[in-house]
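Q: Give me a protein?
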Amino acid sequence: MESFQEILDQVLFSIGTWSLKVHMVAMLLFILLMTRIILWIVKKMLFRRSNVDEHEKGNIQAVYQIIRYVIWIAAFALILESLGVKVTLLLAGSAALLVGIGLGLQQTFNDIISGFILLTERTIKVGDVLEVEDNVIKIQKIGVRTSLGLNTDDISVIIPNSLITTNKVINWSHQNDKTRFRIDVGVAYGSDVDQVIQIMEESAFEHPDVYDRELTEGRLMGFGSSSLDFQLLFFSKNIFRIGSVKSDIRRILVRKFNENNIVIAFPQLDVHLKKE
């Protein structure tokens, strides 16, 4: 027993008055192992149900992220204590240094605080479709400093969390699983208004991603300088790929307008030449 204790107290190397002993390394490995096991158990408990929808999965992921960060912070503090570093004294002695670091990393800390706001408020969750600075992005992961998203070109985008919390962001997934969209079109004066509205609504009905026929509506919006201005309103669940849906409906509109001899308007000017 004494020989085992001697092995644990054996010094691996020293720096000044501080020495790294075998039992310190053993404690460090034990803390890391226990942290991994605790996180594995927590994750299994939170994600034990398989029949959860995307919104609930995002909520569970947010809770897990918060628990994960708290556990790792506690584990890091225990590691420092096991190595003989007094955390309270370290924080008190380095207060001035921490202030300087805080000023230099102000934006980083801003992103970190924003990350905790996103994880705790849960107004934005994994799987939500956001419009950030005119870019449509589907959130894949919310981290402490940055969030990972996928744009409509299937390119991964890393977003600083402060960009989401401090700017105007449209969350297309926040209220319902379907959203209303608009398509604007202008036709030549003299066209049959009722026929145009009927063709617009039929064009939307042909697309499989249009949600509800009764909620699809064509409207005459105004009288432009060169056109009768119409708007097609429709609901769709395919929020992330709505650009492709709109493109398909516009193609159907063009085909049906051509079949019915309806001209899509374009700017026209009459030039009168005056003879001297």
